[in-house]
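INFO  loader      accepted 1 record
INFO  loader      residues=201
INFO  predictor   begin
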Amino acid sequence: MRKRLFLLIAFVPLWVFAASGVLTLENALTLAMKNNASLKRESIALKASERSSRHSWNSLLPSVTVSAIDDIELPDLKRPPDGELENAELRDEKTGKVVRNNIGIEGKIAVTLSSSYFATVDKAKLDYEASRISYEEMVSEIASQVKEQYFSLMLERQNLDVLKENLENAQSQAKQNEVRYKKGTLSEIENLSSKAAYEKL
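INFO  predictor   done
INFO  writer      dumping tokens
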């Protein structure tokens, strides 16, 4: 009995007897979820797939191209006086004629859609759903394991209390029988049998 009691005390996890001495199921679940490395990895994967799913539509943004065109050479030009730049005309210094220049701006906006684009968006959504399900399954599995271990531990604590009480009762009985034997009110065989019963525990 004493050996069994010692083994139970030795192998019960030390964190059970932490500073507060009280371990609740809620505390056990919180600690398990917070410190489980596999769950942390799964959480990171879930966040990454959520981000990919959210941003999968980004490739639909249009591409914009702007270019300027200037297709003639300009002769020596007379610069208008300062302050008159707005609405000023460019004039050839020699002839005084207004110079016309072909200046243009060209712009293109392109949006490319293909069936593969929609497949990519759908795949990102499916990957996110798969990651979310995997994460929730892992949370559920960890919670189930923690609950099972917690209730098993509580049962062991109750068993430990019963064993301790039985040991104390047997020790008390053996001491009382020793006193009775010395007084002569108990036979030697009864005294030895109570000692043997105590030592057997």
